[in-house]
Design brief:
The chain is built from 6 helices and 2 strands; from the N terminus they run αααααββα. The chain is mainly α.
C-alpha cells in the first residue's frame, strides 16, 4: 500500500514537471527572434515554398543569427545584395508600368512607387558599402574665419609668444602711420624762425 502511494505521488510530480517544462519551452519559442520572424516569413512564402517546414526555417534563421553574432557578416552582405537587386527589379517594373499609363493620376502613382523603389535600392547599396568599407574617423583642425581679415586658429600655441609678436606688429604699423607717402617723418626736426610780429617768441633752447 505504501509503495503504491509513493509511486502515485512520483507520477503526479513528474507530470507537473513535464507540463512546466513544455510551458517554458513554448514561452521561449514565443520570444525567439528566429521563430517569430520565421512565422512572418512563412506568411509570405507559403504559396511559393509550400514544402518548407516552419521549424526548419526557424532553425536555418537561428544558424544565421549565430554566424553573424560570431563576426561573420557574409549572410548580411548576401541579404543586402539580394534586396538591392530585388528593389532594382521593382524599379524597372513599376517604371515600365508607369510608362504604359495614359492617365496622369495612374502615371504619377506608378512613377512615385518606382522612384521609391529606386531610392530604397540606393540606400541598400550604401548600407552594403558602409558594411564592407567602414568609414574611418578623421580629426580636422578647426579654423574660424571672422569678418574682414581676421582668422582664429583653434590650436595649442604659446600665448605669450603670440602676444609679444602681435604687440610688435602693432608698433610697426603705428610707426608707419606717422610717415608720409615719401617716407619722411611728419616731424622733420627743423627749428622754427621767430615771427616778426611777435619778437618775444623765440625758439626753445635745446
Amino acid at each position: 500500500m505504501t509503495t503504491k502511494k509513493v509511486s502515485s505521488k512520483n507520477k503526479t510530480m513528474s507530470a507537473k514537471q513535464t507540463k512546466q517544462t513544455e510551458s517554458e519551452r513554448y514561452a521561449k519559442v514565443s520570444l525567439s527572434a528566429s521563430y517569430m520572424n520565421a512565422i512572418l516569413a512563412d506568411s509570405f512564402t507559403s504559396t511559393i515554398l509550400p514544402k518548407a517546414e516552419l521549424s526548419d526555417v526557424a532553425s536555418e534563421l537561428s544558424d544565421k543569427i549565430t554566424t553573424i553574432q560570431n563576426g561573420d557578416m557574409q549572410p548580411i552582405e548576401a541579404m543586402l545584395i539580394s534586396q538591392a537587386q530585388a528593389l532594382q527589379t521593382m524599379f524597372v517594373t513599376l517604371g515600365r508600368m508607369a510608362a504604359s499609363k495614359t492617365q496622369l493620376a495612374q502615371y504619377t502613382a506608378f512613377m512615385n512607387m518606382a522612384l521609391k523603389a529606386q531610392s530604397q535600392s540606393r540606400a541598400t547599396i550604401q548600407a552594403l558599402t558602409e558594411l564592407k568599407y567602414p568609414k574611418q574617423a578623421t580629426f580636422v583642425k578647426q579654423a574660424n574665419i571672422a569678418n574682414g581679415h581676421q582668422q582664429v586658429n583653434n590650436g595649442n600655441f604659446d600665448t605669450n609668444t603670440h602676444a609679444l609678436a602681435h604687440a610688435k606688429e602693432n608698433q610697426i604699423l603705428q610707426n608707419k602711420l606717422l610717415e608720409q607717402q615719401n617716407n619722411e617723418w611728419l616731424d622733420n626736426g627743423k627749428t622754427a624762425t621767430p615771427s616778426a610780429t611777435n619778437k618775444t617768441m623765440e625758439t626753445v633752447a635745446t
